[in-house]
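A quick aside before the break. I want you to see a complete sequence-to-structure record at least once, exactly as it would be stored in a machine-readable document. Don't worry about memorizing anything.
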Amino acid sequence: MSNDKKPSHTQRDTHYANLRRAYRDSKALPASQDSKSQMRNKPGQLPDSVQLYGLHTVRQAMDNPQRVILKMLVTRNALSRLEIEDPQALAYPVEMVLPQAIDKLLPADSVHQGVMIEAKPLRLRTIAELKDADLVLVLDQVTDPHNVGAIMRSAVAFGAGAIVTTLRNSPQESGVLAKSASGAFELIPYLQVGNLADALEELHKIGFTTIGLDSDGPQPLENTLSGERVALVLGAEGKGIRQKTAQTVTALARLDMPGAIKSLNVSNAAAISLYAARKHISG
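That is the input. The structure line, written in tokens, reads:
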């Protein structure tokens, strides 16, 4: 009988453990990998790719010359609704799938309508690029992507030139944000800045009057609108705009409401404010 003692962890054991780990990693869902990758991204750092879904969202992305699409997963029904006659003519691979294949790649509550694309995120824009805009919406740490998406739709409807928000405590480009915007994400620059007060000062330098919306503002919004270029500043529900922001804007204003409720959802307040500002600018 040999006196050699068998080690508890042999090189062969380690080898097979590594193989099992690699196999498990290869089976991980792409959506999970993508979400983990986005979680690791620092504020202001673009992810390698984003997953966009829904008929309006994908159609607008396809029509946006600045959007680089990497691949598409689509059902036959969605392909018809998108009016794509020859998928092979597109500049990226198109895979025909059943709805369940897309379900597996997205969060459980995603309404994808039978189509999803993987795309590169749009490039980050700067305040200096807003020289031709006359109306801008500034969001001070509005964190809910559904609210921001709804605000984007209103901003596009009233001809705003951009949405400016913070790098921290605001949603980055994502499928949820783009779906909530129902295509509007492709139609308006989404600027994320490191310091909102500095961004407001930059807007002042290029001729914008900045108006912070506050339920306790000293004047009604319509009394503070002035000049040919207006930037409306809205804060998160509950907290409102921060003190530094309030100290930096040209004026603070309120929305006068005669009813018992004196505050609105931020997306509703944005729509009303945009309407008033556009009416002022159009004169």
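Two observations worth writing down. The first strand starts at residue 50 and ends at 53. The CA atoms of residues 18 and 24 lie 10 Å apart. We'll return to this after the break.
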